[in-house]
Amino acid sequence: MHIEKFNPSVVDKKWQEHWENKKIFQASKSKDKPKYYCLEMFPYPSGKIHMGHVRNYTLGDVIANYKRLKGFNVLHPMGWDSFGMPAENAAMQKKLHPKDWTLNNIKTMKDQLKLLGFSIDWSREISTCNDDYYKHQQKFFLDLFNKGLVYKKESLVNWDPVDNTVLANEQVIDGKGWRSGAQVIQKKLSQWFFKITAFADSLDTSLNTLHEWPEKVKIMQKNWIGKSIGCELSFEIKNQKEKITVFTTRPDTIFGASFIALAVDHPLSKDYEKNPKFIEFKDNCYKTGNTDEAIAKTEKLGFKTDYEVVHPFIKNKTLPVFFSNFVLMEYGSGAIFGCPAHDQRDLEFANKYKLEVTPVILPKDENIKNFKIKDEAYTGDGKIINSDFLDGLNVEDGKTKIIYEIENNKLGKAKTTFRLRDWGISRQRYWGCPIPILYDEKGNIIPVPENELPIKLPEDINFDKPGNPLDHHPDWKKVKCTKTGKELVRETDTLDTFVDSSWYFLRFCSSDNDQEGFAIDDAKYWMPVDQYIGGVEHAILHLLYSRFFSRAITQDTKFEIKEPFKGLFTQGMVCHKTFKNQNGEWVFPEDVIEENGKFIEKNTKDIIKVGPSESMSKSKKNVVDPQTVINLYGADSVRWFVLSDSPPERDIQWSDEGISGSYKFIQKIWTISEMIQNINDKNKLNEEEIKQCEKLINKLIKEITFNIENFHFNVAVAKFYEFINHISKMLHEDKSQKSIFQKIFKDFLILIYPFTPHLASECWEKNYKNKDIHTSKWPGFDDKLIKEDKINIVVQINGKKRALIDMEPDQDQELIFDKCLQIENVKKLLLDKNILKKIYVKNKLVNIVVK
RNA sequence: GCCCUCGUGGUGGAAUUGGUAGACACAAAGGACUUAAAAUCCUUGCCGCUUGCGGAGUGCCGGUUCGAGUCCGGCCGAGGGCACCA
Question: Which nucleotide is nearest to A826 (CA to C1')?
Fold first, then answer.
């Protein structure tokens, strides 16, 4: 029998057209089915799709397909995060208009995504750079402005001198711009902010409700928000009216306080602003290193003032006041009390300036007489000592009591502070959403009236000058007030592109609604996103902003959304070996061939140095172009490969052997499908063999269902291999029967359809003469049919495996022990030994404990 | 420095609740078919002796348990996040 090969280049196209023509993946609200919103992080249209996209969208597609077969009404949309810097860079370097460059990339990438046969509802496609998207965003901005959640403030900002723009704290990595890699400098500018801190507590505590998020991501967000519970405490300054308010999380150590430290830009620094020594000191503080790590290791420096403060609980005790480089004005109140015995930084400072070190917490196993603090502060729990009315308490009770005393004596109050800062959203760029704000001649802020939205970007734009092109535009920013006719000026800052991606999941619910960003009815039906999938690099920024934005724009409306993403999955990266030629230049993998275990460059025959496998990146050229691979092997092989071997949350190694292995497997399934159609039924199966077949498929159904539900796609893949190996063997041994095989193969095709939809559809059509596999019901399984009628029971002696016995399940315990003792090997090992104990785990193992 | 995660064959990785370690795949070696190659199929894969069996074995050391890759304590190593946060 000759079997034609499976030809993906024909089959893929056939099914993709069929799905599109029949609008199979278009979603609409339905009362009959439960909804399921499956979303992958939308791509930035940088040019071509890369393997990371392939992996991300394949993972999502498995879920979307699976849920559809499970009877859910699935929303699985796609869009484009299409504002951003690379478009402007392209404009400057290639003299292309950012819009043309972007739209062109979107077209290319959309075509490429379609080649993979994803079950996407393209009718809901959105693009953030279209004014029919960003006009709604401008409306949200105005809403937030009216709610007092947007404000403008003169502030020190992170300035990227290469990109000529402001960066959010989150976008500064190791003191460098996240995109340009340039050393970030501090600059004072008037900037727009979202008041994300207003939601700090809610963003923190609500993390506990996200049961389907990775622990890791929740911890990262918790650390970023940095909630700390403590209190404010005021110190009277001797001979002055003013007081110094400090924030502390360790009020229980107040009796160990030996100094006060202020940030150099603390309000009290005004008294010293003309003091040349202080000016010198302040300059020194600013000079110290730029990277965060350098700052952390910098020596603690102090400038002693003439102030003295009175200790609030110890009569006649005064504390010296310093300005210091390790206290930040942005956190707490810009002032601390130093307790050197129980804080490492305070201790270093105290040792340097020869200040008192009084221990007030005694560790459990220490003696009060011998306990001394030298170079290491003690930060653990213990018994409070040297502390008057707090003596004898532990740290926690001490805190409660001292805060009570502080509040009672009107010295301060309990307070919670956060590390989180407000979100700076101003960007001095062209290719972003314009901020709908006007200024009059005095600089007063005038929000653009809603009926004048959208504020569209001008099409004619010039990138020749550095800085903000919108600002340089000859007339765009000049407007006449529609009411008064006065000359007004537009805000030329545009919004951080993270704003665009903070609500796009809501837009998908109402993508064709011209009147509002989303309709409450739609959001009520589709939200929250049931499963969100994307890279872990967005664990903080994008996810935190989205959580904030959802809260902010729905606050005080009929439908408040707190958590937009019910389930989150963060996938690993796609890696590849790196290659360098003799000149140390990176070489593309496609230009490298292997000969006798050595790698050489295809054209020059240069010997290639093989570097470690790293995440695919253009700069290291260790990329494999998805389109090339799809053309060669077809969509299903590529999908299959990125699901195989590695668990989705971990990095995956791209390899040529791997993809050709996947291709072979696709062909194997095809061959089996063809063989099943041609079974001649010369030898029918006996009853035992039929039972065996039922067991195989029931087991597979159970395993695939379990492994999809738990994101163990690599294990599901292994189970498919196991099953196919079985079936293949039976077919080759002529142990087959058409009716039985077509019955179990039918279920098999439904199971594998989410992974390889083209192959499954084609096999289905040939075997069962219809195109409707996608409307099938996910098969159920019967545990009774899976149960083995002969099982292996492990026989252990002192916990070591010594033999196996074949038994029917659920046998009497004594019978099994008897059988064990008859085994030659066991007999031998039990000779001259006393049996102390016999353990039986039902249908699994026997352990005989002897001495 | 603090927080988190992970260490299993030559490689990627399996092992629901502690219960047969190495499923499945890749690579390698040997073999079958073939004039040959490709494709396909089979076998092997730590140490010791004769099929069989015995021994070691999931980064290292110790503990709990009849039994530990899995639980606990302490090290070592890799990766990630945060970084003067009071």
Answer: B53
What's the CA gap between A701 and A750, in Å, rounded? 10
Chain-centre distance for alpha carbon A704: 26
Distance in angstroms: CA A46, C1' B1: 39
Which nucleotide in the DNA or RNA is closest to residue A800, CA to C1'?
B67
Give A713 CA → B35 C1' in Å. Answer: 45
Mean pLDDT of A239-263: 92
A25 neighbors A546 (Cβ within 8 angstroms): no
- CB-based contacts of A735-739 (< 8 A; 24+ apart in sequence): A735/A683, A735/A685, A735/A689, A736/A676, A736/A679, A736/A683, A736/A685, A737/A679, A737/A681, A737/A684, A737/A685, A737/A690, A738/A676, A738/A679, A738/A681
Taking the CA of residue A799 and the C1' sugar atom of nucleotide B21, their distance in angstroms comes to: 14
Give the residue with minimal CA–C1' separation from B52.
A825
Task: Provide φ and ψ at A536, rounded to 5°.
Answer: -70, -15
Three-class DSSP category at A125:
coil
**Cβ distance A89 to A469 under 8 Å?**
no
Q: Is the pLDDT of residue A300 over 90?
A: no
Distance A699 CA to B34 C1' (A): 39
pLDDT on residue A168:
66
Cα end-to-end distance, chain A, whole Å? 64
Smallest CA–C1' separation from A722: which nucleotide? B24
Strands A150-160 and A126-127: unpaired
Residue with CA nearest to B20's C1' atom: A794
**Which of A25-29, A465-469, A702-706, A771-775 is predicted with the least confidence, judged by mean pLDDT?**
A465-469
Express each pLDDT in A574-631 by its tens digit. 988 888 888 888 888 888 887 666 778 888 888 888 887 888 888 888 888 999 999 9
By C-alpha distance, which of A167, A228, A556, A582 is closest to A417? A228
User: Whole-number Å distance, CA A145 to C1' B82?
Assistant: 32
Q: How many angstroms is C1' of B42 away from CA of A687?
A: 28
**Which nucleotides of strand B are protein-proximal, with an atom < 7 A from a CB?**
1, 3-5, 11-16, 19-21, 23-27, 39-42, 53-55, 66-68, 80-86
CA of A745 to C1' of B38 (A): 30
State which H helix or E strand residue A381 sits in. Answer: none
- DSSP per residue, A577-600: EEEE-TTS-EE-GGGEEEETTEEE
Task: Give yes or no for a contact between A593 and A600, defined as CB atoms under 8 angstroms apart.
Answer: yes
β-pairing verdict for A126-127 and A79-80: parallel
CA gap A639, A661 in Å, rounded = 12
CB A120 within 8 A of CB A76: yes
Nucleotide nearest to A227 (CA to C1'): B85
Report CA torsion sign: A732, A736, A741, A742. positive
H or E stretch including A504?
helix A504-507
* Whether the Cβ atoms of residue A563 and residue A209 lie closer than 8 Å to each other: yes
Q: Which residue is nearest to nucleotide B14 (CA to C1')?
A: A715
Closest by CA to A343, choosing from A233, A248, A234, A414, is A248
Closest residue to B11 measured CA to C1′: A653
Residue A652 CA, nucleotide B60 C1', distance (Å): 28
- Total residue count of chain A as it appears in this document: 851
Quickly give A589 CA vs B22 C1' distance in Å. 32
By C1' distance from the Cα of A170, the closest nucleotide is B82
DSSP H or E run through A792: strand A791-797
Q: Is the pLDDT of residue A493 over 80?
A: yes
Q: What is the 3-state secondary structure (H, E, C) of A506-568?
A: HHHHHCCCCCCCCCHHHHHHHCCECEEEEEHHHCCHHHHHHHHHHHHHHCCCCCCCCCCECEE
